[in-house]
Design goal:
One of its GO terms (cellular component) is cytoplasm. The structure is a single chain. This protein is an alpha/beta fold. It has two domains: 124 residues, Response regulator (Rossmann fold, 3-Layer(aba) Sandwich), CATH 3.40.50; 85 residues, Orthogonal Bundle (Arc Repressor Mutant, subunit A), CATH 1.10.10.10. Helix content is 44%, strand content 17%. The chain is built from nine helices and seven strands, in the order βαβαβαβαβαααααββ. The strands form two sheets. It has a five-stranded parallel sheet, with helices on both faces. A two-stranded antiparallel sheet has the order 6-7. The protein is elongated, with a radius of gyration of 21 Å.
């Protein structure tokens, strides 16, 4: 798996340690550097150009908004997730105008940053190695629901060990797009997964009530389990 390079910007050593601990629990990310001041953050981001920056607003010199504006002014193509205690509407609007991927308010639980990083990983993987995108791809990327699409939210605390949310979404979305009854083997082939892996995700989705199971019997051999998204 390709890891997403990250830089963490936080002036409080204890908060930095907590954030690092949370991120190390999430598969697919690599912390390549940290910064405790705004100017240090700009210098590191200029040099390393990470895919993702976790940025606090309240820093001892430049604030996080100034850092965000400066890296945008320089055209540095790093995505930014803001983690801060700032809750005023003007601050939220300001950073959203400069294209942050997410905004997390302190204090926060592990599940919130896990959701943010899983969403970013999905976003990153959808864009990687693409030359162009059609309207359906773009709508899915920016979370626009069209008629007939199914809203899909899972309780991450209930996810069995060994299952990853990003793969769960891929399996569900594949079934949702096909709108057909598909076997684990067909889903595995379509997504490039092992059949046993696809079956585990399908069984979890069926038990969660997101999809339904249909058992089909042929003339010979074992019955085949087919899965389809509930309409």
């Amino acid at each position: 798996m390709n890891h997403i390079d990250m830089v963490l910007v936080e002036d409080d050593p204890m908060v930095m340690a907590v954030n690092e601990g949370f991120i190390k629990r999430i598969e697919g990310f690599s912390i390549i550097s940290t910064a405790r001041t705004g100017q240090e953050a700009i210098t590191i981001i200029q040099s390393l150009r990470p895919q993702l920056v976790i940025l606090d607003i309240y820093l001892p010199d430049l604030d996080g908004i100034q850092v965000l504006k400066e890296i945008r002014r320089q055209g540095i193509p790093s995505d930014v997730i803001m983690i801060t205690a700032a809750q005023d509407v003007s601050t939220v609007q300001d950073v959203l105008r400069f294209g942050v991927i997410d905004y997390i308010i302190k204090p926060f639980k592990f599940e919130r940053i896990q959701a943010a990083l899983n969403n970013y990983q999905s976003y990153y993987e959808q864009l990687r190695d693409r030359g162009e995108m059609n309207q359906e791809d773009l709508d899915r990327l920016i979370k626009i629901s069209t008629v007939g699409e199914v809203e899909f939210n899972l309780n991450r605390e209930g996810l069995p060990k060994g299952l990853r949310e990003i793969t769960l979404h891929k399996v569900f979305n594949y079934l949702n797009e096909k709108q057909l009854c598909l076997s684990a083997e067909e889903v595995a082939e379509g997504l490039g997964l092992a059949r046993v892996t696809a079956r585990r995700y399908l069984e979890y989705l069926e038990k969660s009530g997101k999809i339904f199971l249909e058992t089909r019997y042929g003339f010979v051999g074992r019955p085949i389990n087919k899965y389809k998204v509930k309409l």
